[in-house]
Amino acid sequence: MKREIIETADGSSTIHIPEWNEQYHSKHGAIQEAYHVFIKYGLSNYKDKKLSVLEIGLGTGLNCFITYLEGIKNQLEIDYVGVEAYPVSLDEVVKLNYVSELKAENHKGIFDRIHSELWGKRIELDSMFSLTKRRHLFNEIDDIESFDLIYFDAFGARVQPELWTVELFSKMFRALKMNGILVTYSAKGSVRRAMLEVGFEVEKLPGPPGKREMLRALKPKE
């Protein structure tokens, strides 16, 4: 499918797929969405601790990069796993403006390594941040109680409904540790019901620009 780099409302770029009329990030602001959904309502729940993060949809590397930046700022030791079946090409990566928009030129090498490092190998990007890129389909995830936090950033249910099912959220539930949380930009009723069916406690939260609500799910103690 054809893919093109576009500028979103906050000036940051993303990848647009015309055939689906779908973007990797919100057209209302890629960086704003990432910080609102995954940092404000996800990572910010963790203070002064070592934590493990699973990202469903490594994609452009934006969520990983801002998690690295926030981890450095807040002295968090982060073990990050990004799952992606169809990696972004290096030709596309060089056209993304996240380093300049985040004023993170001193960390450009880290952003580049997020995309250039080998798949399937745990890499220390920094003494406080490790990255493992796993190239496989989301329905092949079989981790058990391995993660404190999941960023669920798959393409929307409108174009890939199979990624927002009870089956997938069962895998997410099993992959989380007790009291672990999952955050996603979606607030669809069908998504919320699927989360509830597998055992999550689910709350609606204010959404990022362009969305009224989003969801955060907790894996409660048994």
Explained architecture:
This protein is α/β, with parallel strands linked by helices and 222 residues long. It has one domain: Vaccinia Virus protein VP39 (Rossmann fold, 3-Layer(aba) Sandwich). Helices cover 27% and strands 28% of the residues. The strands form two sheets. An eight-stranded mixed beta sheet has the order 6-7-5-4-8-9-11-10, with helices on both faces. Strands 1-2-3 form a three-stranded antiparallel beta sheet, with no helix packed on it. β4, α2 and β5 form a beta-alpha-beta unit. The radius of gyration is 16 Å and the shape is globular.
Topology:
Blueprint: E1 4-7, E2 13-17, E3 22-23, H1 30-40, E4 50-56, H2 62-74, E5 77-83, H3 90-93, H4 98-101, H5 108-116, E6 122-126, E7 129-134, E8 147-152, H6 166-175, E9 176-184, H7 189-198, E10 201-206, E11 213-218
Parallel strand pairs: 4-5, 4-8, 5-7, 8-9
Antiparallel strand pairs: 1-2, 2-3, 6-7, 9-11, 10-11
CATH architecture: 3-Layer(aba) Sandwich
CATH topology: Rossmann fold
| Structural class label | alpha/beta
Could you name the ranges where pLDDT drops below 50 across 5 or more consecutive residues? none
Topology order in helix (H) and strand (E) letters: EEEHEHEHHHEEEHEHEE
Radius of gyration: 16 Å
Count the DSSP helices. 7
Strand-residue fraction? 25-35%
Share of residues in helices = 25-40%
Q: Give the biggest beta sheet.
A: 8 strands, mixed
Shape: globular
